[in-house]
Amino acid sequence: MKTLRLMVMICSLLTGCSGLLQAPISHFELQTPRPFGYLIGDEIKHRVILETRQDLSLNFNSVPAQGEVNRWLHLNKVTVSRQNEGRETVIDLSYQVFYAPAEVKMLTIPGYILQFNQAGKIVEQQIPEWHFTLSPLKELAVRKDNDGYQYMRPDAPPRYLATQSLWMGVYISLVCGCSTAVYLAYLYGYLPILSRQRIFKRACRQLANLSEREMGRSLAVVHHALNTLNGQPLFPHQLKEFYQRHPEYLSIKPKIDWFFNLSNQVLFAGWQKFDAGEWLELKDLCRLCREIERGSR
Description:
By secondary structure, the protein is an alpha+beta fold. The protein is about 40% helix and about 20% strand. It is built from eight helices and ten strands. The strands form three sheets. A five-stranded antiparallel sheet has the order 1-2-6-5-4, with no helix packed on it. Strand 4 and strand 5 (about 75-85) form a beta hairpin. Helix 4 (about 200-210) runs antiparallel to helix 5 (about 215-230), helix 4 runs antiparallel to helix 8 and helix 7 (about 255-270) packs across helix 8 (about 275-295). Mean pLDDT is about 80; it is low at about 15-20.
């Protein structure tokens, strides 16, 4: 029994010692791209992976700061993340090169030291410098043995884009725009010739939506049509001048005189004894004016 207790105590001591002897940083890896074939303006991405004990915390002041590293190297972006339940620290760095070499040149991204805090102590990890080659955009000297061909020459000009469909769209848009403008000008009365050919057509359409009980509104519709044709309000004593300007309406002079007489009785004398006969007579007057307007009478 004493032997068994002694073995248990020894195992416990060995387990505790192994925990104390475990390295704070158990794994370190620097992942880099190819070390050659770069030109001015290219970006180079590095990734640092460290597997540490969970009681270690990264000192962010030891991570390279975003900005200018030296006169030809710039650190565009720095990202720090914790993965694998906090046991892995991943640092992504994106460098950009602004060196313009005259020939292929070996350059170095400087190394740095990462620091971790562990129970008041500092644990450091050295990140080594990284070497790569940078190539010029063109050769230093122009070739002479080119068999009569021009060695330094501009890029091939780009092919012209087909513009036929674009111009077709422009023409269609212009036609639609002009048509809309003409239609709006007609609606707002800026085309008097076309507008006068539709005065009584609109009046007939409005009368079709009214009934004989709305004689006042019906008379106002015909008055508006005659005023529009005359260019100003038309009164009975002005009919002589109206017929001089529009002699084609002399053929229905009795009906126009009847209309003004009816209008005077209904709108000003308050006569309410009109019936369906007067209503039909008014619609017939508007129809005759429409025929004259259209030139079919």
